[in-house]
Amino acid sequence: xxxxxxxxxxxxxxxxxxxxxxxxxxxxxxxxxxxxxxxxxxxxxxxxxxxxxxxxxxxxxxxxxxxxxxxxxxxxxxxxxxxxxxxxxxxxxxxxxxxxxx
Length: 102
Fold this sequence. Notes:
The chain is an alpha+beta fold and 102 residues long. The chain has a domain at 30-40 and 49-98. Helix content is 18%, strand content 23%. The protein has helices at 50-53, 85-98; strands spanning 30-36, 56-65, 68-73. It has a three-stranded antiparallel β-sheet. β2 and β3 form a beta hairpin.
């Protein structure tokens, strides 16, 4: 599924941000972006839930249920990110998709 928040991106988008990790995500979500955990240097990396997600962890997804739409992104932790045209297009595209404008 391509939605406006990611359809303009190349196969790899280089971005530095925080990740939130969890072992429980709805299996019906459509993952739009995933962090490559093999590129992370962190002394607590062994605590990450890699048994669930392997070397990739979802950072943006969408979901349709019962006529409604959900768009999620965990990106955007630094104020300067909101000056980045690619990131802003990611946000706008997700909002437009959730509102069924695109």
